[in-house]
Amino acid sequence: MFEKRFQLWPLDNDTEQNIKRFEKTLFHEMAHQWFGNLVTMVSFLEWWDSIWLAESLSTFMASQRPIVFDPATDLSETPIVDKKWALQAAEGIVQPIQSTVYRKGPALFEMLDSLIGAKRMQKLLRRFVFNFQFKSAETSDFIELLQKIDEEYEENIENYEENKRVK
Asked: Peptidase M1 membrane alanine aminopeptidase domain: which residues (predicted)?
C-alpha cells in the first residue's frame, strides 16, 4: 500500500467512498501475490506486455468477490469501467497508459469472464498461475492457455454474440 492517504487508515471520519477505494487497492495489491509475484510477467524490456497483464489481472481480481474478508463488502457489482470517460485535462503520457492498464485491460477480463463463464475463467486463471508459477509469462502465453482451456471456446463466442442480440 503505497498511497500516502491509506497509511493511517481507517480514520474515524473516513467516507464510504474512501473506504471502498482502500478496499479495492488492498485487494488489487493482494492479487499481485499471484499476478506479478508468483507469476512474473516477462521482463521490463517487454514492459508493455508485462505491465498491462499484471496490472489488468490484479485490477480484475480486486473486483471479484472480496466478501471473504467482509460479507458486507461485494465489489463484484461495481463495474471496473464507467460507461463514459471524459478527458478533463491534458495529463501527459501517463494518463493514457493508466487508463489502458487500470480500466481497459480489466474490462477485457470482465468481458472474457462474461463470455466464457465464471467456472472456465477460474479454471483459466488457476491453470495460468500453476503453469507459470516461479516463471515468466507474457500475453501470448495467456492467450495460448485460453485457446487450450476449452475446445468449445469458438462456439461460445458465437453464442455470446447471438445472446446479446436476443436481449
From this structure: 6-158
Residues 81-101, buried b or exposed e (16+ Cβ, 10 A)?
A: eeeeeeeeeeeeeeeeeeebb
**CATH of the domain spanning 13-82+89-166, picked from 3.30.930.10, 1.10.390.10, 3.40.50.2300, 3.10.50.40:** 1.10.390.10
DSSP string, 69-135: T-TT--GGGS-SS-S-----S--TTHHHHHHIIIIIHHHHHHHHHHHH-HHHHHHHHHHHHHHHTTE
What does the domain layout of the chain look like in residue ranges? 13-82+89-166
Residues of the chain with pLDDT > 90, as a percent, come to 6
